[in-house]
Write a structure and sequence with these properties.
Elements: E1 2-6, H1 11-24, E2 27-32, E3 49-52, H2 58-65, E4 70-73, H3 80-85, H4 88-108, E5 111-117, H5 140-159, E6 163-168, E7 170-172, H6 181-191, E8 195-198, E9 204-209, H7 210-223, E10 229-232, E11 236-239, H8 240-251, E12 258-261, H9 276-279, H10 289-302, H11 304-311, H12 315-323
Parallel strand pairs: 1-2, 1-4, 2-3, 4-5, 5-6, 6-10, 7-9, 8-12
Antiparallel strand pairs: 9-11
Bound molecules: nicotinamide-adenine-dinucleotide and 2'deoxy-thymidine-5'-diphospho-alpha-D-glucose.
């Protein structure tokens, strides 16, 4: 199969591309705008073609889609805190970008997979969201992702286009940009920097290792029924504070580094996904959180080449703006 993978230079996209090329022998063209989160280094050990461009740029999409059998769209602005501070790019990429890609795929009769998120359902105190749960997004990030999903569904409903949507829970693992909870806490712990916990730290996330989410998307690409949504959730959930305490144990950091900071506006309390539908396609998560977190800490310890340029670059300014203090 020849796949167009949009956003393939990011965290999940690059892990997916590696699986498809090494595990399935697919040919992959990556189309990526290379925002702060997109890095060619993420794909340095994987054979692929690369087109530098945005999904909202019809010319770049036309060049990249040439000869493709299917499109998998990971391209997105992905950090909730940034969507609260500066929502503009979220609207452009998730609404206009999804539209331009859908048009290009529709003209060519291609199968299309939209990578989406559990955040479109909003927060749930008890139980788990199914694919039929109502959509109640809370942040500009999740609202624009929801808009993208609805547009995708309209292309199946209206034009009969072959689309599938894959909604994942919180991913963690190698190559995740350190603005997100787990890599931020690991790197801060390794450097003796303070560990900023939002609010009371009792918000719960449903953690999935990136290799499991990438495999779930592969299953949906191959076996998902056109027009359907598939939740792909992880096997374990944990409150944030417990995750931070576990990272302190694994890194040997000082527990006194924990600092409770102002909560995220509109913060969702808990996410949880029911994933029976994708399991019925033959997918099963392989990595339990305890084991995956240990491997992830080891990966960040051993791959300073990957994160040093981030920690010494524009990330410092972002960090200062977001947390009101400099990295140590
Ligand atoms: P990421 O921020 O690491 O990577 C996003 C990639 O998209 C980057 O390479 C970036 O350069 C590229 N990109 C951004 N805007 C673009 C545009 N307009 N045109 C082309 N490329 C563009 O994100 P990630 O964590 O790998 O997330 C990938 C996808 O998975 C997103 O759609 C996200 O909503 C979804 N998702 C993420 C998680 C998670 O926990 N990280 C969970 C569920 C779903
Ligand atoms: O649920 C899937 C979503 O998971 C994806 O769609 C998003 O792209 C991805 O960013 C992630 O969103 P979250 O907001 O859940 O992830 P984040 O890593 O930003 O935060 C996880 C939890 O940790 C959340 O409750 C906020 C909290 N947190 C986060 C940071 C960065 C802190 O307490 N302190 C922090 O410094």
């Amino acid at each position: 199969m020849r796949l167009l993978v949009c956003g393939g230079a990011g965290f999940i996209g690059s892990n997916f591309v590696r699986q498809r090329v090494s595990g399935h022998g697919d040919e992959v063209v990556v189309l990526d705008k290379l925002t702060y989160a997109g890095r060619r280094e993420n794909l340095r050990d994987v054979e692929h073609e690369f087109v530098h461009g945005a999904i909202e740029d019809a010319g770049a999409v036309a060049r990249a889609i040439e000869g493709a059998d299917a499109v998998v769209n990971f391209a997105a602005e992905t950090h909730v805190d940034r969507s609260i501070a500066e929502p503009d790019a979220f609207v452009m990429t998730h609404a206009m970008g999804t539209f331009v890609l859908l048009e290009a795929a529709r003209e060519r009769g291609l199968r299309y997979v939209q990578v989406s998120t559990d955040e479109v359902y909003g927060s749930i105190e008890e139980g788990s969201f199914t694919e039929d749960s109502p959509l109640r997004p809370s942040s500009p990030y999740s609202a624009t992702k929801t808009g993208g999903d609805l547009l995708v569904q309209s292309y199946t409903h209206t034009y009969g286009m072959e689309t599938v949507i894959c909604r994942g829970s919180n991913n963690y693992g190698p190559n995740q940009y350190p603005e997100k909870l787990i890599p931020l806490m690991i790197l801060n712990a390794l450097h003796g920097d303070r560990l900023p916990v939002y609010g009371d730290g009792q918000q719960v996330r449903n953690w999935i290792h990136v290799s499991d989410f990438a495999a779930g998307i592969g299953h949906v690409l191959a076996h998902g029924k056109a027009g359907e949504v598939y939740n792909v959730g992880g096997p374990d959930e944990a409150p944030n504070l417990e995750v931070v305490e576990r990272i302190i144990e694994l890194t040997g950091a000082d527990p006194g580094l924990i600092e409770y900071v102002e909560d995220r506006p509109g913060h969702d309390r808990r996410y949880s996904l029911a994933s029976e539908k994708v399991r019925a396609l033959g997918w099963e998560a392989q990595v339990r959180f305890a084991e995956g977190l240990e491997q992830t800490v080891a990966w960040y310890r051993e791959n300073a080449w990957w994160w040093e340029p981030i920690r010494s670059g524009a990330y410092r300014e972002y960090y200062e703006r977001q947390y009101g203090r400099a990295l140590g």
